[in-house]
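Duplicate of #3305? Posting structure anyway:
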């Protein structure tokens, strides 16, 4: 078991330690029981001593009850320890993910992170439970049972001593052969989870394009791969049972031969042979148990490596203890900024960007697909760090702020609008969990969302289903804008966040911004010229560079890209009229 992961046991160390102790007591009693049975047979039954039989029988029952008690308590402790360990692991991974930047998250797919939080942790949990219970039980049982056998008949003890490494080696060999197949399975689980996630989240698109058969085939394909890998692994592991039975029956035959000979010559009694048979079975079953746990540990080892990858991922966004906690104003400065998603050696998405935005300005950003409009604004709240140069907010490099302070003052509505399961009130209060109902309603009016919310039977208490699938795209955008406004930020960024609303509603939202939050810097990324035409400043992006900056009138005179977009949209609008 990985040592780094074992740190997550924490408050469940007591249960983890008590489990092997209780198991040792259980095993000690189980080893004594065959010895008492031999005494009952060889002394009580052979000599016809009923009092002795009753006396030893009572002791036997008491020992059996105590063994049962210790075994049950060990099982209970193991369950608590393993469940608590898994709970702490989930806590540690989930909290670690919260520290990740977008760059860190890009290293793992969403489906892979889900698999690590579910299937992989379950594998580790099961392996941990069996390790502290069964893996501690097996060696104690093997040692004590062999000692008791040696005390009765050394010749049989030597036979078992030879059998133990042969059987153990064979079973470990089988487990190692199966291990690579189990490792491959978990990588395929990531693909399977991704397929299911995409299908469920895009169910409407699948049905709209009648692609159910295609999705079913895609699911069946990956499902067959997992089936094949599991089948190979299980076919190898299936050799455990016949190998175990072959060795077991061979040992039994040899024991009968040696024991029968000893009984005939008077060197062993019938009860002793019976107890030796029990001890032999205990040793062999313990070895089988070790192999079973060993297979689980090997599976869990693959899972623990995947979990460790997440826990050891170093968050790209580091902040000093002396990080600034106050953002002075909404000024934004880009100074010789270069950025690449792949790091310093990757292709640059932004190249030598210099930009100065004054607090309170309305800034429009336009450009073709792939021109790095979204990349530009994602550097402001430090969702990514620059590769070269620096981005300043309120006169400070964004890397000098604490992330909480910076992101509290830079409110961003992303292209992919996300709502969470809960009421509209609860979703809007993501911006400020202590906001009153009046404050929530006010920002909804600014975002032109109040009207359609009141049309719902439950109004602001209407429940949003997972992903916000029970509201339209335009309604979802307006709710997300309201949520961002509730933070009362110094900088508000709308990344193409009004694309699903009509032009009139778009104009009303921009008018509310200008009148109600004049001191907030507003950055609006849009495809429609009408959404940015009245901005104080318009930035034209092209291939990761700023191609032009100015007002709409200035850009019409000086910038070809802006002029072409303007004329194409205005001409199209005129023709539609």
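Output from current build:
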């Amino acid at each position: 078991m990985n040592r780094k992961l074992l740190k997550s046991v924490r408050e469940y160390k007591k249960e983890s330690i008590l489990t092997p102790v209780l198991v040792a007591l259980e095993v000690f009693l189980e080893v004594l029981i065959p010895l008492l049975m031999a005494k009952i047979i060889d002394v009580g039954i052979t000599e016809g001593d009923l009092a002795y039989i009753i006396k030893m029988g009572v002791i036997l029952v008491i020992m059996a009850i105590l063994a049962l008690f210790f075994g049950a308590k060990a099982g209970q402790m193991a369950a608590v320890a393993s469940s608590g360990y898994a709970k702490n692991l989930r806590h540690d991974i989930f909290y670690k993910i919260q520290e990740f930047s977008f760059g860190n998250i890009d290293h793992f797919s969403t489906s892979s992170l889900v698999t690590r939080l579910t299937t992989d942790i379950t594998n580790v949990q099961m392996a941990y439970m069996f390790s502290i219970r069964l893996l501690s039980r097996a060696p104690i049982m093997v040692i004590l049972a062999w000692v008791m056998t040696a005390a009765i008949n050394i010749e049989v003890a030597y036979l078992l001593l030879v059998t133990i490494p042969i059987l153990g080696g064979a079973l470990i060999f089988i487990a190692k052969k199966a291990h690579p197949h189990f490792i491959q399975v978990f990588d395929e689980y990531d693909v399977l989870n991704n397929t299911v996630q995409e299908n469920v989240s895009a169910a409407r698109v699948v049905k709209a394009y009648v692609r159910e058969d295609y999705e079913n085939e895609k699911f069946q394909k990956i499902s067959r791969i997992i089936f094949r890998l599991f089948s190979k692994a299980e076919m190898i592991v299936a050799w455990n049972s016949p190998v175990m039975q072959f060795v077991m029956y061979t040992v039994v035959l040899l024991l009968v031969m040696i024991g029968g000979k000893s009984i005939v010559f008077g060197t062993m009694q019938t009860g002793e042979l019976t107890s030796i048979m029990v001890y032999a079975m205990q040793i062999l079953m313990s070895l089988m148990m070790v192999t079973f746990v060993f297979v689980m540990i090997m599976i869990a080892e693959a899972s623990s490596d995947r979990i460790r990858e997440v826990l050891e991922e170093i968050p790209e966004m580091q902040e000093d203890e002396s990080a600034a906690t106050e953002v002075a104003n909404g000024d934004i400065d880009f100074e010789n900024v270069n950025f690449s998603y792949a790091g310093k050696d990757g292709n640059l998405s932004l190249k030598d960007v210099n930009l100065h935005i004054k607090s309170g300005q309305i800034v429009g950003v336009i450009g073709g697909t792939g021109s790095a409009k979204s990349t530009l604004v994602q550097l402001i709240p430090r969702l990514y760090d620059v590769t070269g140069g620096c981005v300043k907010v309120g006169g400070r490099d964004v890397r000098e702020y604490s992330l909480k302070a910076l992101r509290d003052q830079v409110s961003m509505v992303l292209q992919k609008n996300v709502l969470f399961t809960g009421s509209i009130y609860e979703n809007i209060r993501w911006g400020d969990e202590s906001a009153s109902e009046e404050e929530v309603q006010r920002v909804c009016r600014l975002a032109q969302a109040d009207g359609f919310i009141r049309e719902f039977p439950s109004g602001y208490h209407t429940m949003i289903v997972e992903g916000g699938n029970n509201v339209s795209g335009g309604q979802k955008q307006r709710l997300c804008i309201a949520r961002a406004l509730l933070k009362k930020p110094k900088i508000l960024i709308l990344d193409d966040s009004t694309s699903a609303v009509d032009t009139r509603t778009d104009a009303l939202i921009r008018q509310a911004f200008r009148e109600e939050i004049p001191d907030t810097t507003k950055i609006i990324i849009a495809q429609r010229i009408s959404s940015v035409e009245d901005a104080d400043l318009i930035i034209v992006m092209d291939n990761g560079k700023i191609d032009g900056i100015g007002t709409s009138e200035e850009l019409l005179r000086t910038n070809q890209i802006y002029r072409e977009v303007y004329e194409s949209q205005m001409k199209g609008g005129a023709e539609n009229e």
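Confirmed duplicate; merging threads. The CA atoms of residues 446 and 515 lie 10 Å apart. The longest strand covers residues 332-339.
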